[in-house]
Amino acid sequence: MGAGFLPEMAKNLLMTSSLPSRTKLLQLTGVSLYNVSHGFHEEDVKKKLQQFPGGSVDLQKEDNGIGILTLNNPSKMNAFSGVMMLQLLEKVIELENWTEGKGLIVRGAKNTFSSGSDLNAVKALGTSEDGVALSMFMQNTLTRFTRLPLISVALVQGRALGGGAEFTTACDFRLMTADSEIRFVHKEMGIIPSWGGASRLVEIIGSRHALKVLSGALKLDSKKALNLGMIEEILQSSDETKSLEEAREWLMQFINGPPEVIRAMKKSVCSGKELYLEEALQNERDLLGTVWGGPANLEAIARKGKFNK
Protein backbone atom coordinates (compact mmCIF):
# COMPACT_ATOMS: atom_id res chain seq x y z
CA MET A 1 0.00 0.00 0.00
CA GLY A 2 1.58 3.29 -1.11
CA ALA A 3 2.36 6.07 1.35
CA GLY A 4 -0.19 8.37 -0.25
CA PHE A 5 -2.96 5.78 -0.39
CA LEU A 6 -4.54 6.28 3.03
CA PRO A 7 -4.60 10.11 2.95
CA GLU A 8 -6.10 9.99 -0.56
CA MET A 9 -8.65 7.41 0.56
CA ALA A 10 -9.54 9.54 3.56
CA LYS A 11 -9.98 12.57 1.33
CA ASN A 12 -12.28 10.68 -1.01
CA LEU A 13 -14.33 9.30 1.88
CA LEU A 14 -14.68 12.70 3.53
CA MET A 15 -16.02 14.19 0.31
CA THR A 16 -18.82 11.65 -0.07
CA SER A 17 -22.05 11.57 1.90
CA SER A 18 -22.98 7.92 1.42
CA LEU A 19 -23.58 5.96 4.60
CA PRO A 20 -21.02 3.19 4.01
CA SER A 21 -18.25 5.70 3.26
CA ARG A 22 -18.47 7.49 6.59
CA THR A 23 -18.51 4.14 8.36
CA LYS A 24 -15.40 3.02 6.50
CA LEU A 25 -13.66 6.27 7.41
CA LEU A 26 -14.28 5.68 11.11
CA GLN A 27 -13.06 2.10 10.79
CA LEU A 28 -9.75 3.11 9.20
CA THR A 29 -6.90 3.37 11.71
CA GLY A 30 -4.73 6.46 11.49
CA VAL A 31 -7.03 8.65 9.43
CA SER A 32 -7.22 12.26 10.60
CA LEU A 33 -9.94 14.89 10.38
CA TYR A 34 -7.92 17.37 8.33
CA ASN A 35 -5.62 16.97 5.37
CA VAL A 36 -4.34 19.05 2.44
CA SER A 37 -7.86 19.39 1.03
CA HIS A 38 -8.70 21.42 4.15
CA GLY A 39 -5.61 23.61 3.81
CA PHE A 40 -3.79 21.64 6.49
CA HIS A 41 -0.11 20.94 5.83
CA GLU A 42 1.01 18.66 8.63
CA GLU A 43 4.73 18.66 7.85
CA ASP A 44 4.87 22.46 7.97
CA VAL A 45 3.17 22.47 11.39
CA LYS A 46 5.55 19.79 12.66
CA LYS A 47 8.58 21.86 11.63
CA LYS A 48 7.27 24.84 13.59
CA LEU A 49 6.46 22.78 16.68
CA GLN A 50 9.91 21.19 16.62
CA GLN A 51 11.35 24.64 17.39
CA PHE A 52 9.86 24.57 20.91
CA PRO A 53 11.54 21.85 23.00
CA GLY A 54 10.96 20.93 26.61
CA GLY A 55 9.34 18.09 28.51
CA SER A 56 8.17 14.78 27.14
CA VAL A 57 5.11 12.56 26.74
CA ASP A 58 5.93 9.15 28.17
CA LEU A 59 4.12 5.86 27.60
CA GLN A 60 4.37 2.76 29.75
CA LYS A 61 2.57 -0.36 28.55
CA GLU A 62 1.79 -2.90 31.25
CA ASP A 63 1.28 -6.64 30.85
CA ASN A 64 -2.31 -6.32 32.11
CA GLY A 65 -3.25 -4.33 29.00
CA ILE A 66 -3.21 -0.91 30.70
CA GLY A 67 -1.11 1.90 29.30
CA ILE A 68 0.06 4.84 31.42
CA LEU A 69 0.47 8.05 29.40
CA THR A 70 2.33 10.72 31.38
CA LEU A 71 2.59 14.41 30.52
CA ASN A 72 6.06 15.20 31.82
CA ASN A 73 7.10 18.85 31.99
CA PRO A 74 6.87 19.57 35.73
CA SER A 75 8.86 22.81 35.72
CA LYS A 76 5.99 24.32 33.69
CA MET A 77 3.10 22.44 35.34
CA ASN A 78 3.26 19.92 32.49
CA ALA A 79 2.42 22.55 29.86
CA PHE A 80 2.58 21.22 26.30
CA SER A 81 5.71 22.34 24.49
CA GLY A 82 5.78 22.01 20.71
CA VAL A 83 7.86 18.86 20.99
CA MET A 84 5.36 17.38 23.46
CA MET A 85 2.55 17.96 20.96
CA LEU A 86 4.58 16.03 18.39
CA GLN A 87 5.31 13.27 20.90
CA LEU A 88 1.63 12.98 21.80
CA LEU A 89 0.86 12.18 18.16
CA GLU A 90 3.68 9.62 18.13
CA LYS A 91 2.28 7.95 21.25
CA VAL A 92 -1.24 7.89 19.80
CA ILE A 93 0.12 6.13 16.72
CA GLU A 94 1.93 3.65 18.97
CA LEU A 95 -1.29 3.00 20.88
CA GLU A 96 -3.22 2.52 17.63
CA ASN A 97 -0.87 -0.38 16.92
CA TRP A 98 -0.90 -1.89 20.42
CA THR A 99 -3.17 -4.86 19.76
CA GLU A 100 -2.85 -6.23 23.31
CA GLY A 101 -4.01 -2.95 24.88
CA LYS A 102 -7.35 -2.58 26.65
CA GLY A 103 -7.15 0.53 28.82
CA LEU A 104 -5.26 3.78 29.22
CA ILE A 105 -4.65 6.16 32.13
CA VAL A 106 -3.60 9.73 31.26
CA ARG A 107 -1.84 11.64 34.02
CA GLY A 108 0.62 14.44 34.67
CA ALA A 109 4.00 14.16 36.37
CA LYS A 110 4.63 15.45 39.89
CA ASN A 111 1.02 15.49 41.06
CA THR A 112 -0.48 17.93 38.57
CA PHE A 113 -2.21 17.25 35.25
CA SER A 114 -1.38 20.01 32.74
CA SER A 115 -1.55 23.78 32.49
CA GLY A 116 -2.23 23.68 28.72
CA SER A 117 0.06 25.10 26.06
CA ASP A 118 3.53 26.42 26.80
CA LEU A 119 3.29 30.19 26.42
CA ASN A 120 6.62 30.35 24.57
CA ALA A 121 5.06 28.41 21.70
CA VAL A 122 1.80 30.37 21.92
CA LYS A 123 3.63 33.71 21.65
CA ALA A 124 5.70 32.57 18.66
CA LEU A 125 2.67 31.18 16.82
CA GLY A 126 0.95 34.54 16.94
CA THR A 127 -0.96 34.80 13.67
CA SER A 128 -4.50 33.62 13.04
CA GLU A 129 -3.16 31.19 10.42
CA ASP A 130 -0.74 29.72 12.97
CA GLY A 131 -3.54 29.31 15.50
CA VAL A 132 -5.84 27.54 13.06
CA ALA A 133 -3.04 25.24 11.88
CA LEU A 134 -2.21 24.30 15.47
CA SER A 135 -5.91 23.75 16.15
CA MET A 136 -6.17 21.34 13.21
CA PHE A 137 -3.03 19.49 14.34
CA MET A 138 -4.29 18.99 17.90
CA GLN A 139 -7.85 18.18 16.80
CA ASN A 140 -6.40 15.52 14.50
CA THR A 141 -4.35 14.05 17.33
CA LEU A 142 -7.08 14.10 19.98
CA THR A 143 -9.75 12.76 17.61
CA ARG A 144 -7.49 9.82 16.85
CA PHE A 145 -6.96 9.52 20.61
CA THR A 146 -10.72 9.38 21.32
CA ARG A 147 -11.10 6.69 18.66
CA LEU A 148 -8.46 4.42 20.17
CA PRO A 149 -9.93 0.97 20.89
CA LEU A 150 -8.88 1.44 24.51
CA ILE A 151 -11.02 2.55 27.45
CA SER A 152 -9.32 5.73 28.65
CA VAL A 153 -9.48 7.65 31.92
CA ALA A 154 -7.90 10.98 32.83
CA LEU A 155 -6.40 11.00 36.32
CA VAL A 156 -6.66 14.65 37.32
CA GLN A 157 -4.30 15.60 40.12
CA GLY A 158 -3.51 19.23 40.84
CA ARG A 159 -4.68 21.43 38.00
CA ALA A 160 -5.97 20.77 34.48
CA LEU A 161 -6.10 24.18 32.81
CA GLY A 162 -6.79 25.34 29.25
CA GLY A 163 -5.51 22.71 26.85
CA GLY A 164 -5.04 20.40 29.83
CA ALA A 165 -8.76 20.68 30.57
CA GLU A 166 -9.48 20.01 26.89
CA PHE A 167 -7.34 16.86 26.97
CA THR A 168 -9.41 15.46 29.85
CA THR A 169 -12.51 15.65 27.63
CA ALA A 170 -10.82 13.43 25.04
CA CYS A 171 -10.76 10.58 27.57
CA ASP A 172 -13.75 8.29 28.05
CA PHE A 173 -13.80 8.97 31.79
CA ARG A 174 -12.28 11.35 34.32
CA LEU A 175 -11.26 10.83 37.95
CA MET A 176 -10.11 13.62 40.28
CA THR A 177 -8.25 13.78 43.56
CA ALA A 178 -10.07 15.76 46.26
CA ASP A 179 -7.93 18.91 45.99
CA SER A 180 -7.64 19.07 42.21
CA GLU A 181 -9.38 21.37 39.72
CA ILE A 182 -10.39 21.57 36.05
CA ARG A 183 -10.69 24.99 34.50
CA PHE A 184 -11.21 26.13 30.90
CA VAL A 185 -9.32 29.45 31.11
CA HIS A 186 -9.52 30.24 27.39
CA LYS A 187 -11.73 33.32 27.79
CA GLU A 188 -9.10 34.92 29.99
CA MET A 189 -6.60 34.39 27.16
CA GLY A 190 -8.94 36.03 24.66
CA ILE A 191 -9.62 32.81 22.74
CA ILE A 192 -11.93 29.79 22.76
CA PRO A 193 -11.05 26.10 23.15
CA SER A 194 -9.40 24.90 19.95
CA TRP A 195 -8.40 21.29 20.57
CA GLY A 196 -12.01 20.07 20.35
CA GLY A 197 -12.66 20.68 24.04
CA ALA A 198 -15.83 22.75 23.67
CA SER A 199 -17.54 20.21 21.41
CA ARG A 200 -16.61 17.31 23.66
CA LEU A 201 -17.61 19.22 26.81
CA VAL A 202 -21.12 19.73 25.39
CA GLU A 203 -21.35 15.98 24.87
CA ILE A 204 -20.21 15.28 28.45
CA ILE A 205 -22.24 17.80 30.50
CA GLY A 206 -24.74 19.26 28.01
CA SER A 207 -24.82 22.62 26.23
CA ARG A 208 -26.27 24.67 29.11
CA HIS A 209 -23.65 23.64 31.65
CA ALA A 210 -20.89 23.77 29.04
CA LEU A 211 -21.74 27.37 28.20
CA LYS A 212 -21.55 28.30 31.89
CA VAL A 213 -18.26 26.51 32.41
CA LEU A 214 -16.64 28.05 29.32
CA SER A 215 -18.04 31.58 29.41
CA GLY A 216 -17.50 31.88 33.17
CA ALA A 217 -14.05 30.27 33.05
CA LEU A 218 -15.40 28.44 36.10
CA LYS A 219 -13.07 26.67 38.48
CA LEU A 220 -14.39 23.13 38.79
CA ASP A 221 -13.17 21.60 42.01
CA SER A 222 -13.75 17.89 42.46
CA LYS A 223 -17.18 18.26 44.08
CA LYS A 224 -18.50 20.65 41.42
CA ALA A 225 -17.13 18.44 38.66
CA LEU A 226 -18.83 15.40 40.20
CA ASN A 227 -22.14 17.22 40.53
CA LEU A 228 -21.97 18.35 36.89
CA GLY A 229 -21.30 14.81 35.68
CA MET A 230 -17.87 15.85 34.46
CA ILE A 231 -16.12 13.11 36.44
CA GLU A 232 -16.96 9.62 37.65
CA GLU A 233 -15.49 9.66 41.14
CA ILE A 234 -13.38 11.59 43.63
CA LEU A 235 -10.42 9.45 44.62
CA GLN A 236 -9.64 8.86 48.28
CA SER A 237 -5.93 9.62 48.08
CA SER A 238 -4.13 12.68 46.71
CA ASP A 239 -0.77 10.94 46.87
CA GLU A 240 0.71 10.53 43.38
CA THR A 241 1.45 6.82 43.68
CA LYS A 242 -1.67 5.86 45.63
CA SER A 243 -4.05 7.78 43.38
CA LEU A 244 -2.53 6.09 40.32
CA GLU A 245 -3.16 2.72 41.93
CA GLU A 246 -6.76 3.76 42.69
CA ALA A 247 -7.24 4.80 39.06
CA ARG A 248 -5.77 1.51 37.89
CA GLU A 249 -8.16 -0.47 40.13
CA TRP A 250 -11.11 1.64 38.96
CA LEU A 251 -10.25 1.02 35.31
CA MET A 252 -9.75 -2.72 35.79
CA GLN A 253 -13.47 -3.29 36.40
CA PHE A 254 -14.16 -2.20 32.82
CA ILE A 255 -11.28 -3.90 31.02
CA ASN A 256 -11.43 -7.28 32.71
CA GLY A 257 -11.78 -9.59 29.72
CA PRO A 258 -10.16 -10.53 26.42
CA PRO A 259 -8.61 -7.63 24.48
CA GLU A 260 -10.55 -8.39 21.30
CA VAL A 261 -13.87 -8.08 23.16
CA ILE A 262 -12.98 -4.88 25.08
CA ARG A 263 -11.60 -3.26 21.92
CA ALA A 264 -14.66 -4.19 19.85
CA MET A 265 -16.88 -2.79 22.60
CA LYS A 266 -15.05 0.56 22.54
CA LYS A 267 -15.22 0.70 18.74
CA SER A 268 -18.95 0.00 18.86
CA VAL A 269 -19.54 2.87 21.30
CA CYS A 270 -17.40 5.21 19.15
CA SER A 271 -19.50 4.42 16.09
CA GLY A 272 -22.71 4.96 18.07
CA LYS A 273 -21.39 8.38 19.11
CA GLU A 274 -20.09 9.55 15.75
CA LEU A 275 -22.29 7.92 13.11
CA TYR A 276 -25.92 8.08 12.09
CA LEU A 277 -28.04 5.30 13.59
CA GLU A 278 -28.14 3.22 10.41
CA GLU A 279 -24.37 3.40 10.03
CA ALA A 280 -23.76 2.65 13.71
CA LEU A 281 -25.99 -0.43 13.56
CA GLN A 282 -24.16 -1.71 10.50
CA ASN A 283 -20.81 -1.12 12.19
CA GLU A 284 -22.03 -2.90 15.32
CA ARG A 285 -23.01 -5.86 13.14
CA ASP A 286 -19.56 -5.93 11.52
CA LEU A 287 -17.79 -5.70 14.88
CA LEU A 288 -19.90 -8.56 16.21
CA GLY A 289 -18.58 -10.69 13.37
CA THR A 290 -15.05 -10.25 14.74
CA VAL A 291 -15.89 -11.80 18.14
CA TRP A 292 -18.91 -14.13 17.62
CA GLY A 293 -17.61 -17.69 17.51
CA GLY A 294 -14.19 -16.49 18.63
CA PRO A 295 -12.14 -18.05 21.45
CA ALA A 296 -13.63 -15.86 24.22
CA ASN A 297 -17.18 -16.50 23.01
CA LEU A 298 -16.72 -20.27 22.72
CA GLU A 299 -15.03 -20.45 26.13
CA ALA A 300 -17.85 -18.47 27.76
CA ILE A 301 -20.50 -20.73 26.21
CA ALA A 302 -18.68 -23.83 27.42
CA ARG A 303 -18.33 -22.32 30.90
CA LYS A 304 -22.03 -21.45 31.10
CA GLY A 305 -22.87 -24.97 30.00
CA LYS A 306 -20.94 -26.35 32.94
CA PHE A 307 -22.79 -24.02 35.34
CA ASN A 308 -26.15 -25.26 34.07
CA LYS A 309 -25.40 -28.90 34.73
In short:
This protein has 309 residues and is of the alpha/beta class. 52% of the residues lie in helices and 14% in strands. The chain has 14 helices and 9 strands.
Description:
This protein is of the alpha/beta class and 309 residues long. It contains 14 helices and nine strands. The protein has a six-stranded mixed β-sheet with strand order 1-2-3-4-6-9, with helices on both faces. The chain has a three-stranded mixed β-sheet with strand order 5-7-8.
Largest sheet: 6 strands, mixed
Tell me the number of strands: 9
Strand content: 5-15%
Q: How large is the count of helical segments? A: 14
Q: Please give the order of strands in the largest beta sheet.
A: 1-2-3-4-6-9
Which class best fits the helix and strand makeup?
alpha/beta
Kindly report how far apart the N and C termini lie: 52 Å
Provide mean pLDDT, rounded: 89
Helix content: 40-55%
Order of helices and strands: HHHEEHEHHEEHEEHHEHEHHHH
Low-confidence stretches: 1-7, 9-19
Rounded to an integer in angstroms, the radius of gyration calculated over CA atoms is 20 Å
Q: Outline, from the CA principal axes? A: globular
